[in-house]
Amino acid sequence: MNFLESRTRQNLARAFAAECQAGARYQFMATMAQNEKLFYIKDTMKMLAKNEMAHAKLFYDFIVQNSGKDSVVEFNADYSYLEAKLEISLQKESEIEKSEFDTIYPEFANTAREEGYEEIAQGFEKVARVEYSHFKLLEYLYNKYQSKTLYKSKLEQLFRCTNCGHLSYQSDAWKKCPLCSLDQGYIMIDYNHIFEESSKIYMDSDKY
Ligand SMILES: [Fe+2]
Ligand SMILES: [Fe+2]
């Protein structure tokens, strides 16, 4: 299979563009969160943006390594341009992440495997697993955001100010930190369980 004529090369270019755009949109979302004084969500979106740029780098490098010289790739694809609102962005981005895990990257992996590019197939699969955890995280944040429960819980839970480290068990967190007076938006949102659940689900998935 000549890489320059492969579908895998086109898929890598599409994936590279999609990852760059997701990275850019997540930076935009970080600014939206900052404007709403949701500083922990701002930092979370920056972390996700960084993840997407790492995925972009992987796909970019595959193209460069296999093309043999400077390369221009032409392709057709649909990309998302979303309304600049945090709530709708959290919802739509979670759906985009889900489609990458459910269909897009598994299909790209199958094509790469059929065309004899096993390492690239595994690259798509590894990235798909990360996108699953992104899907779950964005879905979680969307649900908390739209129900206005980012800093509330039914039972008392531990809230922590990421600025000064103030800790307290409450069911409804402070509006201003009692220690440093900074906004509620600095409180850590505990989403480690999302990554733990995600890692189990994709390990069990018959896709991989
Ligand atoms: Fe990604
Ligand atoms: Fe992602």
Summarize the structure.
By secondary structure, this protein is mainly α. It is built from five helices and two strands.
Description:
The structure is a single chain. With 208 residues, the protein is mainly α. The chain has a single domain (3-150), classed as Up-down Bundle (Ferritin). The protein is 62% helix and 7% strand. It is built from five helices and two strands; from the N terminus they run ααααββα. It has helices spanning 7-35, 39-67, 86-114, 118-146, 192-204; strands spanning 152-160, 167-172. The protein has a two-stranded antiparallel ribbon with strand order 1-2. The longest helix has 29 residues, at 7-35. It is elongated and about 65 Å long. The protein starts with 6 loop residues before the first helix and ends with a helix. The structure holds fe (ii) ion (2 copies). One fe (ii) ion binds at residues 19, 22, 52, 55, 127, 131.
Cα Rg:
20 Å
Given this structure, which CATH class is correct?
Mainly Alpha
Give me the secondary-structure category.
mainly alpha
Tally of distinct domains: 1
CATH superfamily: Ferritin, core subunit, four-helix bundle
* Ligand inventory: fe (ii) ion
- The proportion of residues in beta strands is 5-15%
The coarse overall form would be elongated
Query: If strands are numbered along the chain, what order do they take across the biggest sheet?
Result: 1-2
Provide the residue-averaged pLDDT: 95
Order of helices and strands: HHHHEEH
Summed up, the helix count is: 5
| Extended strand count | 2
For the record, the CATH architecture stands as Up-down Bundle
N/C terminus separation: 25 Å
Q: Which spans of ≥5 residues are poorly predicted at pLDDT below 50?
A: none
For the sheet with most strands, the description reads: 2 strands, antiparallel
Predict the CATH topology.
Ferritin
Helix content: 55-70%
